[in-house]
TrEMBL record:
InterPro entries: GalU_uridylyltTrfase_bac/arc, NTP_transferase_dom, Nucleotide-diphossugar_trans. The keyword Transferase applies. May play a role in stationary phase survival. It is an enzyme of class 2 (transferase). GO terms for molecular function: UTP:glucose-1-phosphate uridylyltransferase activity. Keywords: Nucleotidyltransferase, Transferase. The lineage of its organism: Bacteria, Pseudomonadati, Pseudomonadota, Gammaproteobacteria, Chromatiales. The keyword Membrane does not apply. Pfam families: NTP_transferase. Gene3D superfamilies: Spore Coat Polysaccharide Biosynthesis Protein SpsA, Chain A (3.90.550.10). This is UTP--glucose-1-phosphate uridylyltransferase. Belongs to the UDPGP type 2 family.
Length: 292
């Protein structure tokens, strides 16, 4: 990694949302704890961060989210039971949800004031360092080192904020933050502007920001003075637009397949595709799908 740029050591996971699209399943259980086959969404996101070399995982939580810290905590009774029964493989899985060198920190977002506000809540832990933001709703399957790792490498090369993006159909721009892009490479752009959920006829492009960010600490200055935007919330997109006035921001279309697990259809697609890749299930599940 370049000596000129501090390393990315911290990832922020905004997990305070209510998950209303999955009610009643999320009435008492966080949407981030919904399983894809045999692992919850938040664990896939945490594993992606660890794969990128990140050492501190900051979970910005809200009400009814106790099961998230419980998931990453040590479970003495469960481990004892598995050990007594000789289930060593399951025991190792439970013990190694995060490696021992990785620290989990939990911060409470007391008011549901939006993604930008959630990121701002992590400032006391992140301090004056660049950091990653990972939205567990976007599960990204990648054989090329994981999306966050690819973006960390982009940051190491350029030393500025990196937005994870992908090109979307023109009629879906109203579902995303859309950038005004200037092409700089096969999978990269400089960001000249960014608009939150524009109508197709108002969108500057079809290059959409998805749930992965590498941000410089100056974003906290923007968030501290950011006025509420769409939906009366503090929008991270609006703060990034102001950051653009002060420093370079790039965009990177990482290699990998994204599943929008914030929607029921995307969640089902992820379940099917990851089950077809699961070492224990893939053959039997593929046969079931063929014969149903």
């Amino acid at each position: 990694m370049s000596q000129n740029h501090p390393p990315i050591r911290t990832a922020v996971f905004p997990v305070a949302g209510m998950g209303t699209r999955f009610l009643p399943a999320t009435k008492a259980n966080p949407k981030e704890m919904l399983p894809i086959v045999d692992k919850p969404l938040i664990q896939y996101a945490a594993e992606e961060a660890v794969e990128a070399g990140i050492e501190t995982l900051v979970f910005v939580t809200g009400r009814n989210k106790r099961s998230i810290p419980d998931h990453f905590d040590k479970a003495y009774e469960l481990e004892h039971e598995l050990e007594e029964r000789g289930k060593t493989e399951l025991l190792e899985q439970v013990r190694n949800i995060v490696p021992p060198n990785v620290t989990c920190v939990y911060v409470r977002q007391s008011d549901a004031l939006g993604l930008g506000h959630a990121v701002a809540c992590a400032h006391p832990i992140v301090r004056n360092e660049p950091f990653a933001v990972i939205l567990a709703d976007d599960l990204i399957e990648s054989s090329n080192g994981g999306a966050t790792r690819q973006m960390v490498e982009q940051y190491a090369e350029h030393g500025c904020s990196v937005l994870g993006v992908e090109e979307v159909p023109g009629d879906r721009t109203h579902q995303y933050g859309i950038i005004d892009p200037v092409k700089t490479g096969p999978r990269s752009w400089d960001v000249k502007g960014i608009v939150e959920k524009p109508d197709p006829d108002q969108a500057p492009s079809n290059v959409a920001v998805v749930g992965r960010y590498i941000l410089t600490p100056r974003i906290f200055e923007m968030l501290a003075t950011q006025k509420p935007g769409a939906g009366g919330e503090i929008q991270l997109t609006d703060a990034i637009a102001r950051l653009l006035e002060l420093e370079r921001v790039t965009a990177f279309n990482f290699e990998g397949r994204r599943f929008d697990c914030g929607s029921k259809l995307g969640y089902l697609e992820a379940t099917v595709e990851l089950a077809l890749n699961h070492p224990e299930l893939k053959d039997d599940f593929a046969e079931y799908l063929r014969n149903r």
